[in-house]
UniProtKB/TrEMBL annotation:
The keyword Cell inner membrane does not apply. Keywords: Signal. Its main location: other. Pfam families: Peptidase_M75. This is Peptidase M75, Imelysin. Residues 36-325 form the Imelysin-like domain. It is found in: Cell envelope. GO terms for cellular component: cell envelope.
Length: 356
């Protein structure tokens, strides 16, 4: 994976062309306090609720409790989607990023491991502490989705699904623990947040404001590339006959488009919280206004595509909205990578997804 390599023209964040000077520490501090910490706090609450809902399903199996657990999964997955594109900081410790969501899984490694655990009733897979030491593919949202929505998942509503439910509860507990640990990591007074928001010559990670803001800009540029080229194009072909609905993330739970919408909503929330727009000249404010409009349009388009992905792709009207989502993400990539970067005097010519 290639490291981000934005090149700033000045050692301080805002170049002469900007309307108002903004210290990098202010920009980063606003991003952390205004979005990152609240979003991870929300995720910790959602995953804790998910864990309780799966435990309740195990205690009293019924269709109602299964529906509640599935609803809890949807809420938690969307909470994760809002922050998952911030791929640095505490989430990078202890393989937490991969443990939360092992995807794309092009060789179905995770699926095979989950199916094997269900078939063998592996006792370690039913223990939240022990599963945290097993393969990352068995620990996160992908594994739990299969437990709750995959083949024979309806048996969870009956006593016959007891072991499967215990496995699911262990995975849900693991997800909740990771979420809480990442939340706490961002809230530590001497943790990563302090390092990122206080760049300087004595800071071994961020030696100046340019490096600190490079990290932030990389979230938008790499995140939009991820949404468009990996998440969306992973299942949406150039032509309908090239579509691959079962390559879509969360296709079993019909949560694909809700996750894509939450990705864009999260990036939009981060952009607003950082107040990057305040550094633009009056003549350039159209850039931030366009960014806001495109984030809203993209999220609305994604959320309007409902139902099983195979059916959505077969419906010209819904498929057109997915095509439009691709257009929106490309437009946003241009706005961040060319327009906004140009205003701030930096060159955005990198990719974290090209495998170099």
């Amino acid at each position: 994976m290639k490291a981000p390599a934005l090149a700033f023209t000045l050692s301080l964040f805002m170049p002469v062309a900007a309307h108002a000077a903004m210290p990098a520490s202010d920009v980063i501090g606003q991003a952390i306090d205004g979005f990152i910490r609240p979003a991870y706090g929300d995720l910790a609450e959602r995953t804790a609720a998910l864990e309780k809902s799966v435990e309740a399903l195990c205690a009293t199996p019924s269709q109602a409790s299964l529906d509640a657990a599935r609803a809890g999964f949807a809420q938690a997955a969307q909470g994760w989607a809002k922050v998952e594109l911030i791929m640095f900081g505490p989430i990078r410790e202890d393989n937490r990023l991969e443990r939360m969501l092992f995807w794309p899984d092009r060789k179905s490694i995770g699926l095979k491991q989950v199916q094997a655990a269900l078939a063998s009733k592996d006792p370690d897979a039913a223990d939240a502490e022990k599963i945290a030491r097993k393969s990352v593919a068995m620990q996160g949202f992908g594994a739990l989705e299969y437990v709750l929505f995959g083949t024979d998942a309806d048996e969870l509503a009956t006593p016959e699904g007891a072991w499967r439910c215990t496995f699911g509860a262990a995975v849900a507990g693991n997800i909740a623990t990771i979420s809480a640990d990442v939340r706490d990591g961002w809230n530590k007074p001497d943790g990563f947040a302090a390092i990122w928001s206080n760049p300087g010559p004595d800071n071994l990670t961020y030696r100046n404001g340019a490096e600190a803001v490079t990290e932030l800009m990389g979230v938008f540029i790499n995140g939009l590339e991820m949404v468009r080229d990996v998440r969306l194009k992973g299942f949406l072909g150039l032509r309908p006959e090239k579509d691959k609905p079962k390559q879509a993330l969360y296709w079993r739970s019909q949560g694909t488009t809700a996750s894509l919408a939450a990705n864009l909503e999260g990036l939009g929330g981060l952009f607003r919280a950082s107040h990057l727009a305040d550094a633009l000249s009056p003549e350039s404010r159209w850039i931030s206004e366009s960014i806001e409009i495109q984030f809203a349009n993209g999220a609305e388009a994604a959320r309007s595509v409902k139902g099983p992905m195979e059916e959505a792709l077969a419906d010209p009207a819904r498929r057109e909205k997915l095509d439009y989502l691709g257009t929106v993400t490309s437009s946003l990539s241009n706005l961040f990578g060319v327009r906004l970067s140009g205003e701030f005097g930096l060159t955005a010519g990198f990719s974290s997804l090209d495998g170099d």
